[in-house]
Amino acid sequence: MIYGIKKGIPITFGYVPMGIGYAALAIKAGLNPIETVSMSFFVFAGAGQFMAVSMLAGGASLIAIVLTSFVVNFRYFIMNFVVYNKVEESNLPLNILSAHLVVDESFAIFSLLEESSIWIYIGLAGIAFLSWVFGAAIGVVLLDFLPVIVTNSFNIALYALFVAILVPSVKRSSRICIMVVITGILNYVLQFFIANWSVIAATLIGAAIGMYIVPDDDLSADNQEISSEEVI
Fold it and tell me: Which domain holds residue 15?
């Protein structure tokens, strides 16, 4: 587990400030400090949390927020299956714990490690989890002392996070870029007809289009390039 914690330390440098940014959006959306930190503890969905509180601020219904979060975070199911297939020994309680802790960054690092212990993964993902919750806790305390211009600047955190996720794949494949643009246009157009449900509809339609226009070779190329990079 200690080895996993050491591998996860670089993640904390990004998660603490992002946790603060999430807290700023959550408080602005109407959540109180306890609800804000509790969401990070019990949900721990990174970009999904940013999206959820943004939808809450926009007046979305609870069912729309839940379903949109489910669609956006569906990738975590796949990540967990990959982790379970890689580890040599595990059990149901550990699988449940690791399933709650999975995020893109810890999954990516663990996928490139030669070691396959579930405890290494829990240490790696656990330090990321704690840094995210810690960032949210810092956020709810500091927001009252920060200038308004600083707290308002956190509003761009959601867009910056999704851009950071999309840019690497878009740079490697023009077809993925086309799929992203189509999905964005669909979301913009559909919001005038189905409001906050547009995210779900655009995501599903965009994914269906991607199945036909994005060849498996493009996705394999992404994975090979990521695998060739050194993990700190």
Answer: 2-156
